[in-house]
Specification:
single chain, about 375 residues, alpha+beta, four-stranded antiparallel beta sheet, about 60% helix, elongated
Length: about 375
């Protein structure tokens, strides 16, 4: 039996516990919010007006009361048909309280391996979230500002010191490249650093309320790296928490280098062990710092997206720049903030790539000459 408009507006629906709502995100010319079903359901986008309504479905307010708030904010009253469509959408996605959870997918048969010997993935732990939870409990005493801020200061001091010894580090790294055994040892340590990088993302996510769905090994021969898939980071409460999760990997990379810096500083110049450590410190620093560049798929790009509250920054910037060349009225219709963000990132990222190419060419020329 269909409810009358009065009966419908008297209802006090609520979202299912665990439903996640993101802050406002710029996506193209529109401002959107992400809404995600509990139990790892897929996320979908809604506009600002739909978010206004959905975020107020807490069971304490009737639809009529929410409608009054909506009218005061947007200057328009909603008809009962609009509420019916919205509730049908939320019901179909199992987002209303009382809806049965989505059936858990059947456990895939076979091993956690997928792909081929040349390219594939291998899941390393059965329950990644539980694994990172255990690591988080172990490391939690150190995840405080009183510990992390001094460590960050030491890392900055380390990079300043290494910058003053850059000619020595570059010469020693070139020397290292001609010694295969020592070079393999350095790259083994750098691979361990990448593993710590991924686990740091997972532990940081757990610390701030995120979840981890998978930890494994991904390869595309001859390269093989660990990965840690962090979920729900877009829904963390503050921008700072999102930035901390995204930047935790580079922090772990630099932290890994600190003991080797002390060893390097204790040895005289020209010592073979110091020269090997020079290569480790230079390559490890480049590994961490390059990862902070605001280019996809690097962590710095993710951090910039969180800072600006933008979804799909690179592709949307490319789309806006193409519109500037082919359809100026469409580009001019973008909100001012979108125009500034997309134009700045499009031009800035292009200049950054050109600068990196020039720096790489200069560095190779220096090594070849010396």
């Amino acid at each position: 039996m269909t409810a009358t408009p009065g009966e419908l507006l008297a209802q006090r629906p609520a979202l299912r516990p665990g439903t996640l709502l993101s802050p406002a995100l710029l996506h193209g010319p529109a401002t959107v919010h992400l809404i995600k079903e509990p139990e790892g359901g897929a996320a979908f986008e809604v506009g600002a007006k739909e978010y206004f309504l959905i975020s107020r479905l807490d069971g304490s307010r009737s639809l009529a009361e929410i409608g009054e708030e909506y009218a005061d904010t947007f200057g328009r009253r909603l008809a009962a048909a609009h509420w019916q469509r919205l509730l049908q959408l939320l019901g179909a996605r199992r987002l209303l309280a009382g809806a049965p959870p989505r059936p858990a997918p059947a456990t895939p048969p076979g091993t956690p391996f997928s792909g081929t010997l040349l390219r594939g993935t291998l899941r390393l732990v059965a329950d990644a979230d539980a694994t990172t939870a255990r690591l988080h409990r172990l490391l939690r005493p150190a995840l405080r500002a009183a510990v992390l801020l001094p460590l960050a200061g030491l890392m900055v001091a380390m990079e300043v010191l290494l910058a003053t010894h850059l000619p020595e580090l570059a010469a020693d790294t070139w020397w290292l490249c001609r010694r295969p055994v020592a070079l393999i040892a350095v790259f083994t340590l750098l691979w361990l650093s990448t593993a710590l990088h991924e686990l740091a993302h997972g532990v940081s996510a757990r610390h701030y309320g995120g979840t981890v769905s998978e930890i494994g090994l991904r390869w595309r021969l001859p390269m093989a790296v660990m990965y840690c898939t962090v979920d729900n980071y877009r829904y963390l409460r503050t921008r700072w928490h999102q930035l901390a999760v995204a930047g935790a990997g580079a922090f772990a990379n630099l932290l890994f280098l600190l003991p080797f810096l002390a060893w390097w500083a204790a040895l005289p110049e020209g010592d073979p062990t110091r020269r090997v450590l020079s290569g480790l410190l230079l390559l490890g620093s480049l590994q961490a710092l390059v990862n902070l560049l605001p280019l996809p798929p690097l962590d710095g790009y993710t951090m910039l997206g969180h800072t600006l509250r933008v979804s799909g920054l690179a592709p949307e910037s490319g789309r806006f720049l193409r519109l500037c060349l082919s359809d100026r009225p469409a580009a001019a219709a973008y909100p001012r903030r979108a125009r500034v963000v997309y134009l700045s990132y499009g031009v800035g990222s292009a200049l950054l790539v050109l600068s990196l190419v020039a720096a790489l060419a200069t560095g190779l020329s220096f090594l070849l000459v010396h």
